[in-house]
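re: the backbone from monday

yeah here it is again, tokenized this time
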């Protein structure tokens, strides 16, 4: 009985929606049919409607996703590398007598690091965020810096590689 009431409620809501938003949604969906990542069997799939605000906002979010995804990958490597290869020899802060080996891995490093060192890291993060890629979604392909080693100069081959799972 509850399932029947729920399905009737959903059906009523669907029929009560204005037609103009449904037709504009179709236009938005057609605008994304040729984007990278649109693949069979789903095609363009946006159940939450995050792309309803247009192509420019979609491309901006995609460029931000690339940028932050790469930062996350570097952070993961920064966490794993000292565990595998060991830490640098010498002192992180000679004036404090603090060696690189004394700094723990992961988030515990934040409490062991000198405050000036943490400030330098935060300033560097701010510089990276401010200096790179604000308009790359408007002026070209986000994340494409012309390095063709992993992709390709041929557009079809490049698209195939970038769409690979």
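seq for it, each position gets an aa:
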């Amino acid at each position: 009985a509850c399932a029947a009431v729920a399905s009737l409620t959903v059906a009523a809501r669907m029929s009560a929606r204005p037609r103009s938003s449904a037709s504009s949604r179709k236009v938005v969906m057609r605008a994304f049919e040729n984007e990278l990542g649109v693949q069979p069997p789903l095609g363009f799939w946006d159940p939450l409607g995050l792309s309803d605000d247009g192509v420019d906002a979609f491309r901006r979010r995609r460029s931000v996703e690339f940028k932050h995804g790469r930062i996350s990958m570097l952070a993961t490597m920064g966490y794993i590398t000292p565990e595998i290869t060991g830490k640098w020899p010498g002192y992180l802060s000679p004036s404090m007598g603090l060696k690189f080996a004394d700094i723990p891995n992961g988030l515990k490093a934040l409490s062991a690091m000198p405050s000036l060192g943490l400030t330098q890291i935060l300033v560097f993060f701010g510089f990276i965020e401010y200096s790179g890629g604000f308009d790359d979604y408007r002026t070209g392909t986000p994340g494409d810096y012309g390095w063709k080693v992993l992709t390709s100069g041929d557009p079809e081959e490049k698209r195939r590689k970038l769409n690979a799972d």
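Residues 1-23 have pLDDT under 50 and may be disordered. The first helix runs from residue 2 to 16.
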